[in-house]
Amino acid sequence: MTGLAFYYEGFMSTLLDGHHRATAAYIENKSINCLTIIKVAGYGFSQGKQKPDQLYAGGEKYDFKLFKNPDRIYKYLDKIFNLRKSQLSVEEVEKILNDCRNVWKQVDVPRENKFGKRTYPDYLSIGFSDMAGDVSDERINEVMARRDEDADFELEMIFKKLQLQEPAKAFELAKRIANDANWRVLQEETFRYLASIDSEEVEDKFIKYLVDNDHDTKDLCRKIADEYLNNRNQ
Asked: pLDDT per residue over 156-167, tens digit each?
């Protein structure tokens, strides 16, 4: 199953085609591959080269040799980028400053952790956050002490609400769930959330998990940890 997507920024892409396939995959807790259209951001030279032989798109570098007609690509890119060379307008500068101010307002998030890489809410997260109700420490402790089927669902709702509204607190709860063997039912979701955070603490947690647990091809948490560590080391 594949979809067609348009790359936007960071980890975000807009799905253009394959919405039903994506929904079915979401219900089954699986992912689908997408053919993604990525906008070229620029081109460059390898050391000692007199002619461009690389292009940059979606945060990645690609060799011109991958394409059938590299000279044609270079001429087109050179023309496009020359047309764009101009000073920023007042409106563009103001927009950049506003974006910066919005980031600076997030003072409640610890600086050593880069929250929000993949925390854009889906419709279930928003729905759960409306149902979660009280997310105080007292409520969390009470729910985790019960350890029944209702508690599983309540803790999941609380966790999703915290992801949307209090990321630092969600991070602490995620670590608590991951370290408690009684909450295996939420461990996969917890690992997915932790994998969205660029942090040495998360890296250490995942390394410990891989060391302490035997290899199991059906262990999705192990796969999440492996992918996170591989991406972080690149």
From this structure: 888 888 887 788
